[in-house]
Structures are given as C-alpha cells and as structure tokens.
C-alpha cells in the first residue's frame, strides 16, 4: 500500500465532544480510532470525488470491540450456538492456513476436468459511501464498491468445480471454502453483517487464530490453473464485490480509480464470467436473491446459507439449471460474458468494451 496516497480524516458526519471515550473502565483515545482508518485521497477533478460518508460509525465499532473483548468466552459461545450443517459432511472442504497448500494441490488436478468455477465470497458489509459528482448511477455503484473493498478484508471465499454438464467431482468434496484471517478487534466491519455471519456459523475466533494470510493465498491462486486461463469459466451471483476482493487479493493493491481499468484487470484474470443475476434479466419471472432464485428453480441448498462454500455451490447449480431452462443449453458469450450485475461497464469475449449509463441494480450481495 502506497502511504503517499493516503491521509487520515474524520468522517464529516462524526463530531467528537470529548477527546477520550471510556468503555468499561478502559480508555480509548480518539487518536487510536483514527490510526486504524486510512481513506483514499485522490487529487482529481469532477466527475471524480474524494470524500466518503461512513455508514458504520468507526467509534461505535471500537466500543463494540472493547465490550466484546471483555465478554466471557462462554457467553460468546452461547450467542453463537445455533446449529448448522457440518460443511465436511456436505462435501464442502474447509481450508485454513494449515491445509492451504495441500488443498491447492488437489485443486490443480481437479480443474483439468472441471473447468466451470462457481464462486462466492463473504465480506464484512458496507461501511462507507462515496459523495461527490458521478457520471452515472453505475459509476456511483463502482465507486462505492471500490472504497469499501479498499477499506475492508475478505472473510471467506467459496469455490465449486463443475464440468460441462454441471456435474461436480466424484470424490469427497465438490467445494472448497477458504477461511481468511480476520480479527474483530482490529479489522473494520459493519455490525449487522458480522451478526449475520456469526448466526450463519462463521467462527470468527478461528478466523483470527487459524485464518489464511491473503498474500499466501494469492500466490497459490496464481499458479492454480484457474486464473489467467481462457478455458476456465467463472460463475457468480451479483458479484461486483466478490470480484473486487479477488482483484485486490491478486494484485495486492487497492482497486483502480476508473471502472474501465477494473474491467481490464477482470478480463485479464477471469477471461470468461457469467453473473447469474445478470443472466436473470433474460429469464422471465426469475427474481430476488440467490436463495429465492434457487427455490424458484426447485434447487435444494447443500450446507449453511451465508457461508461462501454453500453459496458458491448453489450458484453453480442455479447457472446450469437456468442454462437448460432458459437458454437451450447455450449461453451467447457476446451478450452475457463479462457483465457484472449492478456495474456499468463490461468486457466482451472479443476484447471490445461495452459502456452503459444505466443502473443495472443495487450492490446488495443477497443470498
């Protein structure tokens, strides 16, 4: 990260009456709060913009962190004791730092036959929105995506492998769920998103202790045979944020300021992408988030909802069911490949770009 391009600034919506905040006898200085926040500063003229409005109050998050740190572990276990399907029993392989290299060795073999990769991520919500002048509503959506992906860390990535007929590998696992290092005391997040993920069975203490380092994952992903490959087809659902986090991982950098540059990177790393939410625009009567679409297609979820592994598997199942029902088993790449629902730019398989001034939808990654 280039520190020359960053500055610290209080969000305009926040005013501190006191220089210090006390939580359960612990003193939290205002300076400590802002030392954790780095906000992109761009020296550009309209239609670009330099400011953001915070959706999640960073001060409140810090207070929540202090309260959680003092909460007995047993209480945390009770709060998170909802029973969920066991991933391993569902054919979903949980990947942590200790088995990362072993699982990538398996993936390098599987992808030689199973060349459709369904993908989903879990991330800590939306904490900021850009303000300023925008060329279009789609430009606004990209700038909001960019500022949040730059500020936040990925939590989970799910990858499901399928062949040309939509069949998954015949072994013990169809899906790999990568669990990244994430620390609730140090990393930024939106509280409602963390609550949802906790209730969905995500173990944040284990992410803190055993999670994958993003750089180590990116190095293995680069040599896995699933990126930078023309024969690999990526399947996703409303996936601007999903691919935003993957581009951030692969480049070890912030996202490009311009949406066209983002799609150039997307085409480089993921030459063929089908966003199921975008395909739905051509499917009569299909609507809603991933779970609702799956129910309309009479598909049964395998594994826990709002975890990346299960969501990626359901995304792959939905794609092949839609392909059969609505597209006569043939997807026209010139119309559908390279579009991400909610963003205004795309790339076509022949290398030309299509620019849209219309809003293709909101950015909520509903599943």
Automatic annotation (TrEMBL):
It catalyses: Exonucleolytic cleavage of poly(A) to 5'-AMP. It is an enzyme of class 3 (hydrolase). GO terms for cellular component: CCR4-NOT complex; cytoplasm; nucleus. One of its GO terms (molecular function) is RNA binding. Its EC number is 3.1.13.4. PANTHER family: CCR4-NOT TRANSCRIPTION COMPLEX SUBUNIT. InterPro entries: CNOT7/CNOT8/Pop2, RNase_CAF1, RNaseH-like_sf, RNaseH_sf. Keywords: Cytoplasm, Exonuclease, Hydrolase, Metal-binding, Nuclease, Nucleus, Repressor, RNA-binding, RNA-mediated gene silencing, Transcription, Transcription regulation, Translation regulation. The keyword Iron-sulfur does not apply. This is poly(A)-specific ribonuclease. One of its GO terms (biological process) is regulatory ncRNA-mediated gene silencing. It is found in: Cytoplasm; Nucleus. Its main location: cytoplasm. It comes from Brassicogethes aeneus. The keyword Cell membrane does not apply. Belongs to the CAF1 family.
């Amino acid at each position: 990260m280039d520190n020359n391009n960053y500055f610290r600034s209080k969000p305009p919506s926040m005013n501190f009456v006191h220089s210090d905040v006390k939580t359960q006898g612990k003193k939290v200085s205002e300076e400590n709060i802002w030392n954790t926040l780095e906000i992109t500063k761009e020296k550009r003229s309209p239609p670009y913009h330099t400011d953001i409005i915070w959706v999640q109050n960073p001060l409140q998050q810090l207070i929540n962190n202090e309260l959680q740190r003092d909460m007995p572990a047993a209480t945390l276990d009770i709060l998170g004791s909802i029973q969920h399907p066991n991933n391993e029993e569902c054919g979903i392989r949980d990947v942590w730092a200790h088995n990362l290299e072993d699982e990538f060795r398996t993936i390098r073999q599987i992808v030689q036959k199973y060349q459709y990769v369904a993908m989903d991520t879990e991330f800590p919500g939306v904490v900021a929105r850009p303000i300023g002048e925008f060329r279009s509503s789609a430009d606004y959506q990209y700038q909001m995506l960019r500022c949040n992906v730059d500020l936040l860390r990925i939590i989970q990535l799910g990858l499901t492998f399928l062949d040309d007929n939509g069949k998954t590998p015949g072994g013990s696992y169809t899906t790999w769920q990568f669990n990244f290092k994430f620390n609730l005391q140090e990393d930024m997040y939106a509280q409602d998103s963390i609550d949802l993920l906790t209730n969905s069975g995500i173990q944040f203490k284990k992410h803190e202790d055993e999670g994958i380092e993003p750089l180590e994952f990116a190095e293995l992903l680069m040599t896995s045979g699933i990126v930078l490959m023309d024969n690999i087809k990526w399947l996703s659902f409303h996936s601007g944020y999903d691919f935003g986090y993957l581009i951030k991982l692969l480049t070890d950098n912030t996202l490009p300021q311009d949406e066209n540059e983002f799609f150039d990177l997307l085409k480089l790393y993921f030459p063929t992408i089908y966003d199921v939410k975008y395909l739905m625009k051509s499917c009569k009567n299909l609507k809603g988030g991933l779970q609702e679409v799956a129910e309309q297609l009479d598909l049964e979820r395998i594994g826990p909802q709002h975890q990346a592994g299960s969501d990626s598997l359901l995304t792959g199942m939905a794609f092949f069911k839609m392909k059969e029902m609505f597209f006569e088993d043939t997807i026209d790449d010139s119309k559908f490949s390279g579009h991400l629902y909610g963003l205004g730019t795309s790339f076509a398989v022949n290398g030309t770009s299509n620019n849209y001034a219309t809003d293709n939808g909101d950015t909520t990654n509903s599943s």
